[in-house]
């Protein structure tokens, strides 16, 4: 690169963009491209879908593999155990794991009166996932953003959800199209739950999720720290594999509720692989108690 070219390079040494506004950043070389200054683009989307749901809760994470789908499944079950009518909407379109975690990965959508029938897991819990239209579990979805937006609209509008108390939405990791689209289209979005693991590389991304949700003018219902320590199955000593307390720290810093922590437990991994939500096992297992506590804290947060 010549000296002249180096001089031209714009964004690299620009200041952090935490408190950007369009006005304040008028002279900034990155103002025209800075997402923080402009705010998320949600133009061109249709108005909110009319559907009979009281509360829509988004579940997201800064990165994959932190337990977001596990939390979504257990939250949906916890709510249905409270007697609520619940829909679980899997919008992690490139990695739709919800059907596997509920043992319904062989199901396909049925049509009735020109409407899509959700897969009904119990009388109180229905599920919609792109996995129900893919030919098999190893087929990747290769779609651009606009196609996903159309699918999300159909998942709200053209599904025979019936009358629901809650829809729990499992979003892909990060701050992309799916979250913007659902926030724009779904009625009664009450806010988002952010799942993180304790280590710095995860909490760094969880901070971005918090700020993203705030930029959408939605409340952060709380942060959950998953994979927070583990009890060694051999010596029963606690091992802080990924550390502990990172989720609570960012919740305090960013002044959002902290909903609690869930340890690493081999039974939780097994439950996911075997398609049986961990929360329905009950019992005196300390991990079960912490999952229950987190879910109850979240329900209290939503119910007010
Ligand atoms: P994400 O949706 O964030 O990608 P998943 O919910 O799919 O993450 O979880 C990733 C893997 O970790 C799954 O195999 C899941 O069963 C497992 N898992 C999630 N939480 C725990 C936990 N607390 N203890 C043990 N395994 C867990």
What does this structure look like?
The chain is α/β, with parallel strands linked by helices and 304 residues long. The chain has one domain (53-303): P-loop containing nucleotide triphosphate hydrolases (Rossmann fold, 3-Layer(aba) Sandwich). Helix content is 34%, strand content 21%. The protein contains 10 helices and 11 strands. The protein has helices at residues 3-8, 35-38, 68-81, 98-101, 145-157, 177-185, 200-215, 246-254, 266-274, 286-303, and strands at residues 53-61, 86-90, 110-112, 115-117, 119-122, 125-129, 164-170, 189-196, 220-231, 238-239, 258-264. The strands form 2 sheets. Strands 1, 2, 5, 6, 7, 8, 9, 10 and 11 form a 9-stranded mixed β-sheet that branches. β3 (110-112) and β4 (115-117) form a beta hairpin. The N and C termini lie far apart (57 Å). Residues 1-16 have low confidence and may be disordered. The protein binds adenosine-5'-diphosphate. Adenosine-5'-diphosphate binds next to α3, β9, β11 and α9. Adenosine-5'-diphosphate is lined by residues 61, 64-70, 97, 226-227, 262, 264-265, 268-269, 272.
